[in-house]
Design a protein that fits this description.
single chain, 361 residues, alpha+beta, Rossmann fold, 8-stranded antiparallel beta sheet, 7-stranded mixed beta sheet, 8 helices, 27% strand
């Protein structure tokens, strides 16, 4: 029997994306979460362990993790095996391994429909993408759905760039709209065709349905919120959408519908907090290559997420797995048990600090 410890404590307190009270030393709540993993390692005494976290953690924290676990950290960008940039560090025993080969998977390759303006997605986070975050803040991810026939849309709406209100117009109608210049305070009027996207003027930014506004790209520029932003797609008319849950599963190199069964909002969150499966598979393939696939594995997974570790072990061909999971998010647990009903749930990771704690075979 081989004992395996897997885990990646929540990175919220360490991530560079944390604007307030980011922890930069080996202390605080983030460190206490890591210590649960360390305590489990000391008590469980695994033959193999694997720990993961965000590369953006401060150097002092990463250095202490390396020291406490007794191994060097390996840095891997998920871009090598997936369609997203996701830089993480990994700590594991059983030697040094080569990095994954670049599989040259592009973001376009994993879309269900539409196009994108970059080769790799921004790092998948716990929230779905939207145009504001993508264009203004350069994070999350969106896709562009080309619109070839505006006449397919039975009713259109024009939205004023200053967001003072809406004017509804029927397709093909003309409309006389008044725009008040905030500097000169003089009213201006214009007439435009409703099936023209009104980007020839500076006053209106898009038209389309209320739920799905249409944007025009001209000369690799798009107008959003009254400002222009560069986009590397051909000129034309587009609807902007967030990535689907299936596309996000593909970013994490998981099977389609792996997270099906909970709301889309929770699917995005669970996937954003999870592992890129093919990175974990690469590490396990190289470190567990001498272990017969019929050997029993006793696995303890700390902060298990959506049981990606279990998925990876099965992908490698292991058939006798007793899998114990510490996870408190109810939606993550629903995904775990939907895919692997035999997972043994244990709840809060802080339980490992109890003096009587142990995992029974």
């Amino acid at each position: 029997m081989i004992k395996i410890l897997l885990g990646g404590s929540p990175c919220t307190h360490w991530s560079i994306a944390q604007k307030n009270n980011r922890e930069t030393e080996a202390s605080g709540q983030g460190w206490e979460l890591f210590k649960n993993y360390l305590i489990a390692k000391e008590k469980f005494k695994p033959d193999f362990f694997l720990y993961e976290n965000n590369k953006s953690a401060a150097a002092a924290i990463k250095n202490q993790i390396s020291k406490d676990l007794g191994v060097d950290l390996m840095y891997i960008n998920s871009a090598l095996v997936s369609a997203q940039n996701r830089e993480r560090f990994y700590a594991f025993n059983r030697g040094v391994i080569p990095p994954p080969e670049d599989r040259e998977i592009l973001l376009q390759d994993i879309l269900e429909s539409g196009i994108v303006d970059r080769e790799k997605a921004y790092c998948l986070k716990h929230q779905a993408g939207n145009a504001r975050d993508y264009l203004k803040k350069h994070h999350t991810q969106i896709a562009f759905e080309p619109i070839t026939e505006l006449s397919e849309i039975p009713h259109m709406r024009v939205r004023e760039a200053t967001k003072k209100g809406y004017t509804d117009i029927a397709l093909g109608d003309c409309v006389d709209l008044t725009y008040e210049n905030s500097k000169t305070r003089r009213g201006r009027s214009m007439k435009e065709k409703a099936n023209c996207l009104m980007t020839s003027c500076n006053y209106y930014q898009y038209c389309g349905t209320i739920e799905k506004p249409i944007y025009r790209v001209e000369n690799n520029m798009i107008v959003y919120g009254g400002k222009q932003y560069p986009v590397n797609i051909k000129d034309g008319c587009y609807i902007i959408r967030k990535l689907t849950p299936i596309e996000c599963e593909r970013l994490q190199t998981l099977p389609d519908d792996y997270t099906l069964g909970i709301s889309d909002t929770q699917r995005y969150k669970c996937l954003g907090n999870g592992w890129t499966a093919e990175v974990i598979i690469h590490i396990l393939r190289n470190t567990l290559k001498s272990i017969p696939r019929s050997e029993k594995l006793l696995v303890l997974s700390m902060y298990d997420g959506i049981a990606t570790g279990r998925y990876c072990l099965e992908q490698l061909g292991f058939t006798d797995i007793e899998y114990h999971a510490y996870e408190i998010d109810k939606y993550a647990k629903q995904i775990e048990l939907k895919n692997y009903p035999d997972i043994i749930q244990h709840g809060d990771a802080f339980e490992v600090r109890n003096s009587e704690w142990r995992i029974y075979e």
